[in-house]
Amino acid sequence: MKNITTRSFSKFGSIIEYPGLAQKNKKKNLFRIVLEDPKAPGWRIAYLVVRDKMINTLEQHPGTFESFEPVKGRAVLFVALKKDPEQIESFRLDRPVILKKGVWHGIITKGRSAEVKITENSEVKCVYWRLSKNFML
Question: Which among 64, 60, 62 is positioned nearest to 80, based on CA atoms?
């Protein structure tokens, strides 16, 4: 039995990770599309490295579902159905979830960083909601 490494698995596929993570800025969130097939449009896989410990903006995608699948670390997902600060709820992201279309969302880490796999429509419209106060734990 072999361990999966970039080299050992390359003829079969690829590892879902953020490439070159050790060399990247250690203070900013990082987002990268990992897989998108122009010959078969419709969806894509992305990898998010979360380093924010507070949020002041939520976003929504009116026309697409979106999955958040925890890979490493401890993350918190903030969600709301309406643009009302009193209705924002937070959840430990300890299981893979799929957000419905149009759900306001944001994510922070409870540690140094957290890593999350995202699957979404390849054409994503983003709408942003600037919050009147910061949310953190």
Answer: 60
- Domain count of the fold of the chain: 1
Residue 119 lies in a domain: yes
Total-model pTM: 0.81
Cβ neighbours of residue 35 under 8 Å, at least 6 residues apart?
14, 44, 45
- Provide the 3-class DSSP secondary structure of residue 127: strand
Evaluate whether residue 118 is within a structural domain: yes
Residue 86's CATH number = 2.60.120.10
Is 12 within the bounds of a domain?
A: no
Q: Which range marks the domain in which residue 42 is found?
A: 28-136
Per-residue pLDDT of the chain (137 residues; tens, 9 = 90+): 677 788 887 877 777 777 776 666 677 888 888 877 777 678 899 999 999 999 999 999 998 889 999 999 999 999 999 999 999 989 999 988 898 989 999 999 999 999 999 999 888 899 999 999 998 87
Round to whole Å and give the CA distance between 29 and 19. Answer: 14
Q: By the 8 A CB rule, do 97 and 23 touch?
A: no
Element containing residue 118 per DSSP (H, E):
strand 114-121
